[in-house]
Amino acid sequence: MNLRALAGVGVVDAPLTWSSYGPGIRQHAHEDQCAVSQVIGNTVAWLTVRGVVEEALGSVVAPPVPSVIWVSEPDSFSDVVGFWNARALVATAASGSVGAVTAILLPPDVSGWLDLAEMLKLRFRARYQRPRPDAFIFSHTVPQAGLRAIAAQLNLTEVDPPVTQEHAAPGFLDTEPDPLASSTAVVGLDPTPWYCYPRRYGRATRELVQVFSGRTIIRAASPVPFRLGTGGWVKVSLSGLRALAAPRRATVAQLFAPDAWFSGDRLSLKRATMNTYEIAVTIPEPAATLTAALRDAGVTFTLSDKGKYAQALLARAPDLEDLVRRPGALEVMTDLTRKRTDRFKTDLEDLLGDKSGDTSLVDDILALARETVPLPHQAVAELPKHGLAAGDIADVLEQLVALGLCSRGFSIDCAECQMESYIEHSAVTPQATCPGCGAAGAYRAAANKPAGPVVRYRLNSLLDRASDNGAPPHILGMACLRQHAAGRPLYILPGALLSDGNTDLGEVDLLGYLAEHLIAGEVKTSPEDFTEDQIKKDLSLAARIGADIYVMVAVHPLTEGQKDMAASLATAQGCQLLTFSGGTARPA
Ligand SMILES: [Zn+2]
What we know:
Elements: H1 3-7, H2 18-21, H3 31-40, H4 44-49, E1 54-56, E2 67-71, H5 77-90, E3 103-106, H6 114-126, E4 130-132, E5 135-138, H7 144-153, E6 157-158, E7 174-176, E8 184-187, E9 199-201, E10 214-221, E11 233-238, H8 250-256, E12 261-263, E13 266-272, E14 276-283, H9 286-295, E15 300-303, H10 305-316, H11 320-323, H12 329-335, H13 342-352, H14 360-370, H15 390-402, E16 406-413, E17 420-424, E18 442-443, E19 456-459, H16 461-468, H17 472-485, E20 490-493, E21 496-500, E22 503-508, E23 510-514, E24 517-524, H18 532-545, E25 549-554, H19 560-572, E26 576-581
Parallel strand pairs: 2-3, 2-5, 5-8, 6-8, 24-25, 25-26
Antiparallel strand pairs: 1-9, 4-7, 10-14, 11-13, 12-13, 15-21, 16-17, 16-18, 16-19, 20-23, 21-22, 23-24
Helix pairs in contact: 3-6, 8-9, 10-16, 18-19
């Protein structure tokens, strides 16, 4: 027996019983029997390939690729190796179906094998999305004239391929729209490079799985039957679980199972071959997922002050996310926030004798000083308008009251002690009494048109401090991302300080993940603060943690120029840009 015949050996006599009884291999098959068996796919190599299903990456269906007709002298080593490699590449495309790609090794003269041409014709016509050409005829050793003779013996019309470079993808080839058109072949072009498209292998099964927080056992029958006892390992991959939509980091995969890794959109594990798999996975908490994703980049984080305030607000009033997206809501909150007075600041700077240097001390003192100022309480009519109707301002305030972040009350101007006091509605008595000195007084009317006491609003101390720290715009950022996520898994912290060991790396205003994408974001009230330097600084921090998305949130509209600049800087480091500002952040 020669090498060429060896390459096609292992003709299986009873292919249907193969998986139960194992192969019945014919020991001394004729070369023409070998060829026929290769065409109809009952050789050992073809039958084992049926346990494998190929999926082209990015598409469910493999591109239509031509069949391989490889021609070899009896003992041409290079042809036998070339054929085996080409067959390995085509064998899994639509394996097991009538449209399976044919790969066949032939001697240079098949003139006596009358059935072969007819069999090939039927195979070619059975393919849905019939490639053009139907086949490549190739050999490392048999000359072009010999290959043309084979084409003639197999009734194949020689055609030129649309492109001839060897590393073109299969999509560069034509398809034949007419299923009954005569069979065609390209002669003398190595077929192998045409089959080198990205793909993955495996056979899938579907199970309905109830997922528990913590540990979940997934049981599934193996889609590939194994004769047990033969041993071996397989890659088992899971997909489709919502909880698997997490940043694709090695450290994140290990949260699901200690030996797991991500490959593509799947969680993969190495397991001994089994006919039923029991896979224990732990569904991690979102916070643990984020921590692990950053640990992958050697970064740890803690919540920033803004982050703590924003989280505390949302824990108290989750619906604040909706309210901050209303035009004017942030402005109304700011108007009711205790002020750090500019005059006091100037005096303080003079006192400290340094106007140009580090202002953090001044800021600290100012923050302390504002705490001694009583919380402002104002009537709707007295608040700045920001282009809003009084009714809209009242509506925002009433929603804050409903959220428990603001109270209603009256105020008393005391004629005796000269103090002005706020009386929450629950403490309002029929007779107005100054809480400072106990003198009788009157509830205040509106300044511009006095007509009896008016309702005043006062933020509670949490919202006041959070607003003074600039936390509400971070909540706006979270709200924008939640809408963008459209139900996909989203976990966002409203402000974090990043560090690498003992080194502070800086602060991000939004940190989290949207499905498999790690997010770092910056939030500004005024868009002018997004300078090129600021964006570069943000992006370098985003790169440090390996963020996939950089988010810019501005309360007022960013310019197209700013967005373009940010987009090109982000793209240059392989990061996606998301912007929310003006009407996209706060739809009217
Ligand atoms: Zn008084």
